[in-house]
Amino acid sequence: MGKENQSRIVEVYGNIPRHQHIAELIRKRSTNKDDIRDVALEEINFKAISSILDLGCGFGFFTEALAGKISPRTTITGVDLIPGHEPLFLQACRHAGVQGHFIPGHASLIATFEDQSYDLVVCSYALYFFPEIVPHIARILKPGGLFVTITHDSRNMGDLFECIKKIMDRHYARKKFLLPVEKVIRQFSAENGAAVLRSWFGQVDTIDYPNTLVYPLSDLHEIIDYFHFKSPFLLVGIQIAKADIVDHLPVLLRQDSPHKNGVVISKNDRIFICAEPKPNMEEP
């Protein structure tokens, strides 16, 4: 991950209350009410797990879902680029009933971790920022260890992104192109994730999590909130004022929606559960 992407991550996710607010809005508008964390962890046998690493841990989204599943003797280490996430991550560890440890920094620092250090590594909605560390994830897992990761499909929020690109095309003559956020997601997506992982794991299982976000026409301001939140990943290198998009976006969303009473946006994810790590750091 380049320094430019790191600065965007800090700018977007460093505003912790806003991030939590947007996450709650997405949960509220999701048609799939199953907790994706529970879906991801449902088949895992935690009896033999005593050490867990949460990469890109944020404020403990994945870790807090471990409550009631793991032994109090389990230790959890969180790694995240934003130091301000530490108190919330440690709070999530306490909620899970275990001892937590937080390391501030880029996920690539696991290159310094010892071989075969963890029984379980988890990473939710972050591996597309640093897919190059997958070999190290395999290396630091113990024999029999597991890697569980959640990512988006390449059309995630695509309905919204297409509307944004249409506005750019109409008003700024921008032709076919990918938004920065689309480029990031395509580094590790539902479509290509298995190919990335199978070089380093003997077994890669997938679970699809189909989902849509449904917004009544009276609540399209929530989509505008999301746009403002993610704008550093939407408008990088693009000479366009946010106000121009905000002015046109609700109208275009209504026009493009096939649903008379609201706007529906794709939000499909995929879970990867990886076993049989291949610790050899040479390219297979």
Largest sheet: 7 strands, mixed
- Global structural class: alpha/beta
**Euclidean distance between termini CA atoms:** 22 Å
- Sum up the overall morphology in one term: globular
> What integer is the average pLDDT?
91
Low-confidence runs of at least 5 consecutive residues: none
- CATH structural class of the domain at 31-153 and 189-211 and 268-284: Alpha Beta
What is the number of helical segments per DSSP (H or I, 4+ residues)? 10
The total count of strands amounts to: 9
- Report the C-alpha radius of gyration, rounded: 19 Å
* CATH homologous superfamily label of the domain at 31-153 and 189-211 and 268-284: Vaccinia Virus protein VP39
**Run of helices and strands:** HHHEEHEEHEHHHEEHHEE
Quickly give the CATH architecture of the domain at 31-153 and 189-211 and 268-284.
Answer: 3-Layer(aba) Sandwich
Strands across the major sheet, in which order? 3-2-1-4-5-9-6
CATH topology of the domain at 31-153 and 189-211 and 268-284: Rossmann fold
Approximate strand percentage? 15-25%
Helix content: 25-40%
Description:
- With 284 residues, the chain is an alpha/beta fold.
- Helices cover 37% and strands 23% of the residues.
- The protein is built from ten helices and nine strands.
- It starts with a helix and ends in a 7-residue tail after the last strand.
- 37% of the residues are buried.
- The mean pLDDT is 91.
